[in-house]
Amino acid sequence: MDVSALLIAAQSVDFAARSAAENQLKLFHEQNFPVYIGCIATELATPTKPLDSRRMAGILLKTMLTAKEEARKQQLHARWVALDPALKQHVRDALLATLTTEAKEVRHAAAMALAAVAAVDLPRKVSGWTDRQTMST
Fold this sequence. Notes:
Layout: H1 3-9, H2 15-31, H3 33-45, H4 51-63, H5 70-82, H6 85-98, H7 104-121, H8 133-136
Helix pairs in contact: 1-2, 1-4, 2-3, 3-4, 3-6, 4-7, 6-7
């Protein structure tokens, strides 16, 4: 599956292309959330990927943890908390690494996603935030 192409197509002005890409992303998300979130985080942090796909990856990471309705937000947070710690660390590392990218729109999307992750992790006193090499530079 070409995640970059799907993320770009999900932003298309062509309704049919956008709808098909959104449906494929939704199916991937529902069928294997851990792999999906890992792929999205990798897409965001890979400097050679297209800027549009990286920006969309950051937005998707943010929306995986945010909701206006409190009940939905709690569901999203519980799903994050239940993920494998190594996968969550991969996502955190990808987000932190992306903050140094030159592309402003990608940096902005990563910052929003990072804030969403921190909003879940920090109240739970999750370790792995201040001892990361990225944070000390």
